[in-house]
Design goal:
The structure is a single chain. The protein is of the alpha/beta class. It has five helices and ten strands, in the order βαβαβββαβαββββα. Strand 9 (about 150-155) and strand 10 form a beta hairpin. The radius of gyration is 15 Å and the shape is globular.
């Protein structure tokens, strides 16, 4: 199983990047994780740019990465009560062309970390809603890591219950993929 990972924080050592690495560590030995490192290079979605044969290189690369994936993990910080704009923009590009997009039916899990006690709840809910509308096969459960400044030791989640929740979400993603 090849899992594509979108991380909505562009900082190299953000809590959300740590969460993404912790989630990837729960993948089985026969799975691979590809951390997509081009979200900031995507232009804002525009139908004027979405022209077959003339797509920006960054969009071609994103769509190819999504097409190669067996599943997707989206990890996003919460900005102003919603998901990170770079994640939303990537979803917009990956959801086109409507009806034949690589994102359609792709098993997807949503995670988020924040300094708040709510664990970026609104960002997670926003991501689940947008991904579902975009056609992804989104897991109904999602995991948030609250008080993220103290939640990690290296790339490991300190709280055993939260770590088990992330492991469970990753296992559910694999099961969803196997059922597809």
């Amino acid at each position: 199983m090849h899992v594509l990972v979108f991380v909505g924080s562009l900082r190299a050592d953000s809590a959300n990047r740590r969460l993404a690495r912790a989630a990837a560590a729960h993948l089985p030995a026969d799975a691979t994780a590809e951390f997509y490192d081009g979200l900031e290079a995507l232009p804002f979605y525009s139908e004027e740019l979405d022209v077959p044969g003339a797509l920006p290189d960054a969009v071609e690369a994103l769509r190819a990465a999504v097409a190669r994936a067996d599943a997707l993990i989206v990890v996003t910080p919460e900005y102003n009560g919603s998901m990170a704009p770079v994640v939303h923009n990537a979803i917009d590009w990956a959801s086109r062309p409507r009806g034949s997009a690589a994102l359609a039916g792709l098993p997807t899990a949503v995670l988020a970390a924040s300094g708040s006690p709510r664990g970026a709840q609104w960002a997670r809910e926003s991501a689940v809603r947008v991904l579902g509308v975009a056609g992804a096969d989104v897991l109904p459960d999602h995991v948030g890591i609250p008080s993220a400044h103290a939640a990690f030791e290296d790339d490991r989640i300190v709280d055993a219950d939260l770590d088990a929740a992330v492991a469970g979400l990753v296992a559910a993603l694999r099961s969803r993929r196997a059922a597809a």
